[in-house]
Amino acid sequence: MSTPTPVSHPKQYSNVTEMEGFEALSELALDLRSSWNHATDQLWRQLDPALWEFTHNPWVVLQTVSRQTLTRVLAEPAFRKSVDELLQARRSFARAPAWFQTTYPHSALNAVAYFSMEFMLSEALPIYSGGLGNVAGISSRPRVTWAFQ
User: Fold this and answer.
1) How many CB atoms are located within 10 Å of the residue 29 CB?
2) Which pick of 14, 29, 33, 75 has the fewest CB atoms within 10 Å?
3) Rg (Cα) of the chain, in Å, rounded?
4) 67-74 vs 77-95: helix axis angle to the nearest 10?
5) Higher pLDDT residue, 114 or 31?
6) First to last CA, the chain
7) From CA 62, how far away is CA 26, in angstroms rounded?
8) Are 55 and 70 in contact (CB under 8 A)?
9) Tell me: the pLDDT tens digits for 69-91?
10) ∠ CA 38-62-124 to the nearest 5 degrees?
11) Is the pLDDT of residue 11 over 50?
12) CA dist., res. 16 & res. 135, Å (int)
């Protein structure tokens, strides 16, 4: 009986998270706005064009890309400038008041939650529901909004 060949796994990379610039990429990769705001698409395409086109999932790309590729692209001043600008835009967006805070500045509500899993977020976040659950969002069904204090 032969010995199984060890499988390389992205988690086995030595301290890739300590690489300068990796935290910024992680923050961008975990931002769910990428499912409708495609400003970061070019970053992920640079890291792994084939995987990006297949998954459109920034986190999968970041977790799968080789340390050598990360080192190379993070050493490029234009790439780092782009990451910094996108990160600043993301943080500015997160700090800015949203529609509700602007429209109702004196409301006692401090959180609003919207639940409707019939509406897909992105192809990068697959939803496995039965029947026509994935396409139900195309219909003119009423949307339910829940508010919690």
Assistant:
1) 19
2) 14
3) 20
4) 90
5) 31
6) 62
7) 7
8) no
9) 999 999 999 999 999 999 999 99
10) 50
11) no
12) 39
Helix (H, G, I), strand (E, B) or coil at 147: strand
Are residues 47 and 29 in contact, defined by beta-carbon separation less than 8 angstroms?
Answer: no
Separation CA 110–CA 1 (nearest Å): 63
Joined together, the tokens standing for residue 93 give 């967006």
The residue assigned the tokens 């590729």 is: 69
Instruction: Please state the pTM of the whole predicted model.
Output: 0.64
Cβ atoms of residues 129 and 117 within 8 Å: yes
Q: What is the phi/psi pair of residue 36, to 5°?
A: -130, -20
Amino acid code (one letter) for 61: V
Cα gap 149→109, rounded to integer Å: 6
The full DSSP string for 31-66 is -GGGGT-GGGHHHHHHH-HHHHHHH--HHHHHHHS-
Q: Which amino acid, 20? A: E
3-state DSSP of 85-111 = HHHHHHHHHHHCCCHHHHHCCCCCCCE
Q: Are 65 and 48 in contact (CB under 8 A)?
A: yes
